[in-house]
Each structure stands twice: as C-alpha cells, then as structure tokens.
Description:
Layout: E1 7-14, E2 17-24, H1 27-44
Antiparallel strand pairs: 1-2
InterPro entries: UCP028291
Amino acid sequence: MGQGVIGKGVVSAGEGVLTLKAIADDAENLAVVEDIMGSHLEGFGQRDNLKVVWELVPSL
C-alpha cells in the first residue's frame, strides 16, 4: 500500500446484494478497514436494520 494508506475497500452492487471487499497488508489493518466500511454502511442502512457480515476468503 502507499504511504499513509492502511488498506482499501471495494463495494460491488449485484441483484439485491452488496459485496464488500477489504484489502490490507496485515490482520490489524484489515480489521480497521472492515470496521470503517462496515460501520459506515450500517449507519446508512440503520432504518432497514442492515448488518454487515464479513467472511474471510483466502487469497489466490
């Protein structure tokens, strides 16, 4: 990652589903990226009781 960057997040929209992808160089920074993305999305979807569930997918 670049200077001052701890990771990145990607959001893809599908038919009735959003897929979030969090990428970081280590587990600590990955947790930070997931927390930021998840808390912001849950805030936007608060009225609909939206919950973000993360699933670990091994790198290829």
